[in-house]
Amino acid sequence: MRITFEIDANELKKIQKITGQKKKSPAISHALTDFLRMQERQEFIEKALAGKTDYALTNEELEARDVYETR
User: Which of 32, 44, 45, 52 is most exposed, with minimal Cβ within 10 Å?
Assistant: First the structure.
């Protein structure tokens, strides 16, 4: 889907540097995908900490699966 929006040139350069993308559209797409992934993780963590999930793995099992990896 195509959209048009305004973004500060300095912010766009930062996004391109952080994502490693030289072209603008792929950089924005990559940044949005990462943002959404982080939001979903945060929501899951909040639910888990509040006990609102039936996720059956223990901490040791989660760590063995590298769930806590950083990007």
Answer: 52
**CB-based contact 48:55 (threshold 8 Å):** yes
Structure tokens belonging to residue 18 = 């952080």
What's the token pair of residue 60?
Answer: 């040791």
The three-point CA angle 14-40-21 to 5° equals: 25
Tokens found for residue 68: 């806590």
Domain boundaries of the chain, sorted by first residue: 9-64
Residue with tokens 């912010």: 11
Looking at residue 43, its amino acid is E
pLDDT in tens, the chain (71 residues): 889 989 999 999 999 999 999 999 999 999 999 999 999 999 988 888 887 877 777 778 777 776 555 55
What single-letter DSSP state applies at residue 38? H
Residue identified by tokens 């039936």 is 54
